[in-house]
Every structure is written in structure tokens, then in C-alpha cells.
Design a protein that fits this description.
heterodimer, A: mainly beta, Immunoglobulin-like, three-stranded mixed β-sheet, 1 helix, globular, B: alpha/beta, Purple Acid Phosphatase, chain A, domain 2, about 30% helix
């Protein structure tokens, strides 16, 4: 239910780290392959908690749950996935709208489920 | 699942359409003015005739929760029970729209919380109490423990000419009703006339209020499609811990305040959802109950139900001293 309060320096650090994770988490097996972004779900957070995509560019999201079943829901990007406990799921997305969006876990996973979310920025 | 039998359907259909249906069916007899009286008497005797009555909606008591947004635990819930019992006109029933308890992975502790909920709610001096689950009651175990304590998570019943439908949009862990329940709903409502007064009570909003706060039901549009044929539908729900009013076509949606803590107005608030902080000077601020009055046979163009939201009061208790008294005194 509740989000831990972040101090301003901590918040800046967290955003920098998550941005770096998003960048380093993007992989290409071959030059022509679709970029892959790894996202891990674990109660009650996604890691990284922020990624950046480009409008019109297709990417593959590789979603992995480290504990229980989680959801991955973002209506503007038509994302509605279920990530079974301990499993990995892949979904391909080509964002058609720019903006900053909040993706939520929509599979109830415990007391702090209401605060399990991450940010997807589409530029 | 309970389903209206033919006898029940005929009562509701006849009632919702008014005596005109009976005139159509028995014109000769009614011309003598005898059968109409007979039907009125039968309706009164069965308790299902259209007569004014009131009921109360309570929501989100979260029994077992204790944290900074509300250090008082079940105090607001207990105060609501006291206020309902003091109402000048006794309500016919109380509807609880979910999150009766706060979740825990310890089944025994969760069972204890459900038992505590029942102990408090049984103090209500009303003839009938009905419930639907919230995700904190049923999200972790598919509603198994909830059903042990409260019975089926979706069902319907009739009361004084109003058809009440309990919808479960939490037990599948995701915010959805599901195909099986939708099929049941279609069948349940299929026997009723277009003008039948219908009250849907559920936990999550059946429309996209704030999807990024999980304030939605993913197949809510499918539910609305089933309801689209009816003229007098009211949806009562909880989950968002604040009052809210919305219209979808002819359907009116009303969210209830909670009995634990409040969330902010979802319009114009960016970022994550955060509870409003506890106000020691007004410990029950933004918490409350709702009384609903059914005014009798609905008239064309008017609503069958009147809604009144009541904020809880803490009597003489104010400030830090008041809160300390509230915490110490179990009878407040």
C-alpha cells in the first residue's frame, strides 16, 4: 500500500542507476535482432524501475519473476502479461504513443502489491 | 449460485413494471378491482413488493491493518457500526463492498482477522448483511478462505422489488470478473424486465478510473454491455477509499469511503498512489458510511435510489489526547 519515502539525493541516485540498468539490460544477439530488455519482478518491485523506449521502435521485453506470479499491465502500450512464479515470459512491443507511463503489477502478490510499479518512458 | 426462479422473476418483473403488467395479464378480473387488491396484498405479505426502504454500504474495513495512515485499527469500523445502530430508521440490510480484512500469508492469522470482522459486524442491528470480497480478502488464495467464512463470492438476491447482484472482481488475482461469472450474470439478469431496479455491488470500479493505480476492472466493459439493456442500474463499489460518482451510459457508479484510511482524489494527481496522512485532530476524517434509500417504484427519468454519504465522527475526541483516549477506550 505504501511507497517508501525517498530523499532527493536517493531519488536521483535511484533514477541514474535504473537508467544505467535499463541501458546495460538492453541486449542484441545479432545486429539485426530486436533489442531485448530484461525486467525482473520480485515482491514488491520491478528491476529496473524505469526504462526508456523509442516511439515506433520494436523491442522485446523479457519478463522474469523471482518469486510469485506477477502481472505486467500498461493499457496505453497494450501490455497485459502474467509472469508465472519463477518463470520468464517474452513480449514484443512497438510503442505508438510518446509519454511517461506507469506499468503496474496487476496480479495481487501481497500486502504491498498496490505499490509495485515501474516507469516506461517513450520518446 | 443462487438464481432467481420463475416465481421470483415474476414478482420482480411485475413489480418493476408496475400494476400495468397485471392489468395486461388479467384485464377482466382487474376490471372488477379485486385481483389488483389481491396482488397488492400478496406482494406485501411476501416482502417483495415495491416499498420504500433503506440500506447501508460499508467498505474497506481492512481488519488487521495497523500503520501510519491509521493507527486506530478497527476503531472506525466499530464507530460505523455504532452510528448505523443509532440511525433513526433501521436499514433493511448492510452491504460490505470488499477488503473486509487486510491480507497476510499466514492463513491462521487471516482466519482470525475474518473472525474478528464477523464479531464486529454481528453487532449491527440489521436483519441482513451481505458481502463481496476485496483483493486483500481473496487475492492470495483465490477466495478459498473468504468462502469458508462468507459463502459464495458472487450471487444475487431480491429484496422489496430490487434485484441485488454481488460481483467478484478480485478472486482471480487480477482485476477481472472472468468469462464464467459473465455468463452467470447474463443468465441471472436475463429474466428481468428492462425497468427492473438493479443494484450491483462489487469491490473494484467496473470502469477505467485510474488504471495506473489499479482502479479498474479489465473486463468491466463486458459487464457494462450486459447491463446496457437495463434502465435502472446502480453500481456500488469500494477499493478506492473515497467517494466518487461516475456514469456509464444509463449506469450510475458510486464508490464508498473506507473505514481505515483515505486515498487522494485521483484526478490531477500524478505519480504513485499514497494514502492521505492521519490527522490526529480529525482521526476519522474522510472515512465514513453510505446510506441508500430506495424510494419505491422508479419513475421514468428519475433514479430509483437516493445516496447519502456520512463522514464518521469521533464524538468528543480531538487532538492527541483524544486519540490516546480512543486507543485506550474500547467502548468509544
Amino acid at each position: 500500500m505504501f511507497q517508501a519515502e525517498l530523499t532527493k539525493p536517493a531519488l536521483i541516485t535511484a533514477l541514474c542507476v535504473s537508467g544505467l540498468l535499463a541501458l546495460t539490460g538492453t541486449k542484441r544477439a545479432h545486429a539485426d535482432d530486436i533489442p531485448v530488455i530484461e525486467i525482473t519482478a520480485k515482491r514488491f518491485a520491478f528491476s529496473p524501475d524505469k526504462i526508456a523506449l523509442k516511439k515506433g521502435q520494436t523491442v522485446k521485453l523479457r519478463l522474469h519473476s523471482e518469486d510469485v506470479t506477477h502481472g505486467f499491465f500498461l493499457r496505453p502500450l497494450k501490455l497485459d502479461e502474467e509472469i508465472p512464479a519463477g518463470e520468464t515470459k517474452e513480449v514484443t512491443v512497438t510503442p505508438q504513443v510518446a509519454g511517461t507511463f506507469t506499468t503496474i503489477c496487476d496480479h495481487f502478490c501481497g500486502a504491498n502489491h498496490g505499490n509495485m510499479n515501474m516507469t516506461i518512458v517513450v520518446e | 449460485m443462487k438464481h432467481p426462479d420463475r416465481r421470483s422473476f415474476l414478482k420482480i418483473a411485475g413489480i418493476s413494471l408496475g400494476i400495468g403488467v397485471l392489468y395486461s395479464a388479467y384485464p377482466a378480473a382487474l376490471a372488477k378491482g379485486e385481483v389488483g387488491d389481491m396482488f397488492s396484498s400478496l406482494g406485501r405479505a411476501s416482502g417483495e413488493t415495491v416499498t420504500p426502504f433503506s440500506f447501508v454500504q460499508l467498505s474497506d474495513s481492512h481488519v488487521g491493518f495497523n500503520g501510519p495512515p491509521d493507527p486506530l485499527g478497527t476503531r472506525a469500523f466499530e464507530r460505523a457500526v455504532e452510528m448505523i445502530n443509532a440511525l433513526p430508521r433501521r436499514p433493511d440490510l448492510v452491504l460490505f463492498t470488499g477488503d473486509l480484512t487486510h491480507d497476510t500469508e499466514d492463513k491462521d492469522v487471516h482466519a482470525q482477522r475474518m473472525k474478528q470482522f464477523q464479531e464486529i459486524s454481528q453487532k449491527l442491528n440489521v436483519p441482513m448483511i451481505k458481502h463481496v470480497p476485496g483483493e486483500h480478502d481473496a487475492g492470495l488464495d483465490g477466495g478459498a478462505l473468504y468462502r469458508e467464512f462468507f459463502g459464495e463470492s458472487y450471487y444475487s438476491f431480491d429484496h422489496r422489488g430490487v434485484h441485488f447482484v454481488a460481483l467478484d472482481n478480485v478472486s482471480r488475482a487480477k482485476p477481472e470478473v472472468g468469462a464464467e461469472q459473465l455468463a452467470w450474470l447474463k443468465k441471472d439478469l436475463g429474466l428481468f424486465s428492462k425497468s427492473a431496479p438493479i443494484v450491483i455491488f462489487t469491490h473494484r470500479p467496473l470502469f477505467d478510473l485510474r488504471p495506473d493505480w489499479e482502479w479498474f476492472t479489465s473486463d468491466g466493459d463486458d459487464v457494462m454491455n450486459v447491463l446496457a439493456d437495463f434502465d435502472n442500474v446502480t453500481v456500488l463499489y469500494g477499493h478506492i477509499h473515497r467517494d466518487n460518482e461516475h456514469e456509464t451510459g444509463k449506469v450510475h457508479h458510486y464508490a464508498a469511503r473506507s473505514l481505515i484510511f483515505a486515498f487522494p482524489d485521483p484526478t490531477g494527481v500524478g505519480g504513485p498512489r499514497k494514502p492521505l496522512p492521519f490527522d490526529k485532530d480529525h482521526p476519522f476524517k474522510n472515512l465514513g458510511l453510505r446510506t441508500v434509500s430506495f424510494n419505491g417504484k422508479p419513475q421514468p427519468g428519475s433514479r430509483a435510489l437516493s445516496i447519502k454519504d456520512i463522514e464518521l465522527t469521533a464524538r468528543e475526541f480531538r487532538g492527541i489526547n483524544g486519540v490516546q483516549q480512543l486507543l485506550r477506550n474500547p467502548k468509544v
